[in-house]
Amino acid sequence: MRKLSSLTFSERATLGWGKVRRFYLAHFRPTYVRESLARRVGHCNRTGACCNLMFTCPLLDRRSDPVRCTIHEIKPRVCRLFPIDERDLSDRDIVSPDAPCGFSFIPRDEFLERGVPAARAAVDRIHVETIDLPRD
Question: Disulfide engineering: 60 pairs with which of 10, 51, 88, 111, CB 3.0-4.6 Å?
């Protein structure tokens, strides 16, 4: 994991914009979020990289192995939904390029090739309010 002090101005600006973008998407664009999360595959590798974007979350317990959120039950929506789309993975890779995220996204074109009914069914299965990461 890169030290925050080693980030360039451009990288810090990218991470700052990512924080604003994720907040906006999580709270004001639920349809986009559902559609994007329907394309998300994989699982959380619990590297803690997403908790170190711009600053280290003070609620991250780095002493545990793997790292864990100390307020898991009431975790903010933005945290529960991460990564919302491919841009979040790019942001995450700025701070932790050596430890890959367990999530990835099916390319949008490939997802839509499954047909409109299949794509809509996948989106309908996403319930943003109940998304959460494993507790273990």
Answer: 51
